[in-house]
Amino acid sequence: MKKNFVSDNKAFNTQLLDFILNFKSLGDMFNDGDRNVIKTMTIDGVLVNVKSFRTPNIINKIVYRFFRNSKAQRSFEYAQYLENHDFGTPKPLGYFENSSALIFRDSYYASEHLKADLTYRELTTDLNYPNHEDILRAFTRFSFKLHQNGINFLDHSPGNTLIVLNNDDYKFYLVDLNRMQFGPMDFLTRMKNFSKLTTHKPMVKVMSSEYAKVSGEDESLIFNTMWKETQDFQERYYRKKRLKKKLKFWKK
Which of 37, 144, 159, 188 shows its CA 20 to 30 Å from the CA of 152? Predict the structure, then answer.
C-alpha cells in the first residue's frame, strides 16, 4: 500500500482513506466510464472527487509496480506542478496505490471537486454558445501560456478543460492529468497540441488568429499547420476505429 495525502488534518485523511478503501460502496457516482470511475463525497464540508483508474493488464501490473509511476501518482504530481506554476486544476488532495510484493493492483487520485460552468466540449457542440468566440480566444491564450511554460498536456481534448465563466473573466482548469511532458516545445509540437480539440474549421481559424496575436508568428502558417494536424488526427482516429470494428467482427 502506498499513499500520499496533502492535508495535515488526520481526521480528514482517515475519512478520505476510508472512502477509497470502500470505493465500491461509498460516494455518489459522477462518471462511470469504460476505463475509469469517478465518485464524489463530502468530507468535512469539502466535496471530494476520487478517480479510480482501471485495473491494468498483467504487463502493466509489473511495469507500475517496479518501473513506472502509476497514473494516480502522476496525476497528483502533475496537478501540484500546475498549481506551483499558477495554472488551474482542481486542488489535488492525494493518491493511493494498492500493490502486493510482486504486482500493482489499482490506484486512486483524489482532488477537490470543481463545479464548472462548461467544458471545451460545449464549445464544439453549440457554436452559438454565449460569448463563444471570446471564450475560445481566452482558451487559446491559456494554451499558449502552457506552451510558453513548457507544459505539453498530451490529453488536450474537449472534455479535459473545465471552464468557469466568472463574469467574463474566464478561468480554465485541466483534468485527466496523467499524460504530460515538460520542456521546450517546437512549433509543430505546439500545433499538434490543438489537434484533438475540434473538427470545426471556423473554431480552428479563431484559435489560429488568437495564437498568431499572442505569439507573433504567421497566422496563415499557424492555421494551415493546426488544421492539417487536426485532419491527420481525425484520419488516425477513424482508421483505428475501423480496425477495431474489423477485429471485433473476426472474433465473432
Answer: 37
